[in-house]
Amino acid sequence: MGHICPPSVVKWLNSPLRKLIQNPREIMGDYVHQDNTVIDLGCGGGFFAVSLAEMVGKNGRVIAVDLQEEMLNITRDFAAKKKVLDRITLHQCKENDIGLSDDKVDFALAFYMVHEIPDRKRFLSQVVDILKPNAHFMIIEPKHHVKEDQFKQILNEAVSAGLELVKPLKVKGGRGMLLKLGTSK
Predict the structure, then answer these.
(1) What's the CA gap between 20 and 157, in Å, rounded?
(2) Residue 137: beta bridge partners?
(3) Whole-angstrom Cα distance, residue 175 to residue 58?
(4) What is the pLDDT of residue 5?
(5) DSSP bridge partners of 138
(6) In Å, how far are 57, 95, 150 from 17, measured between CA atoms?
(7) Greater confidence, 121 or 2?
(8) Among candidate residues 5, 9, 19, the one with its CA nearest the CA of residue 82
(9) Which residue stretches of the chain are H helix?
(10) Which pLDDT belongs to residue 1?
């Protein structure tokens, strides 16, 4: 297994100052709507999960997924502090299994985490299985960990899994792509 983001970095990741650099509403606001069901894959300390919960509103649902129990506990506390815990389902995945094949989502986010997955092909095929028709999937990878050719490889694997590239995304510090289910799915 490659590098996994440790809980010790959450203080920076959940900093209010981060919204000045990577504002969730600016990044995802066009794709996440009231009453949606969305998934934050590799939720870390809940920075995006909490913002997503605010975007989906009281009748929406966010599934916050992480491999590390400590990250899910931090997400729970952060969501409770922001008063959106009732909209968030915490789910601890396994190293090579998201474990949510029965759930279907309107939007999926993988922010700075796909490069950490040991079996990306399996991961991407599981993402395809949980997307509703017309759902979007957003992959954003850190430029300091993932070079351009590595990002292209991830995107090729996503296309092989049944996703279509929609458009590149500009995110400070990251390489991003918006995807959707391919027409054959």
Answers:
(1) 32
(2) 108, 179
(3) 31
(4) 65
(5) 109, 178
(6) 23, 31, 29
(7) 121
(8) 19
(9) 10-13, 18-21, 24-28, 47-56, 69-81, 120-130, 148-161
(10) 39
Rounded CA separation 5/9 (Å): 7
* Three-state secondary structure call for residue 23: coil
In angstroms, the first-to-last Cα distance of the chain is: 30
For residue 141, pLDDT over 90 is answered with yes
For the record, the structure tokens of 89 come out as 């389902």
Helix (H, G, I), strand (E, B) or coil at 43: coil
Can you list the domains of the chain with their CATH numbers? 25-95+103-181 (3.40.50.150)
Mean local confidence (pLDDT), 25-36? 96
pLDDT tens digits along 50-63: 999 999 999 999 99
14, two tokens: 């959940």
Residue of 168, 71, 158, 72 lying closest to 123 (CA atoms): 158
152-160 long-range contacts (CB < 8 A, ≥24 apart) are 154/114, 154/115, 154/120, 157/120, 157/121, 157/124, 158/124, 160/121, 160/124
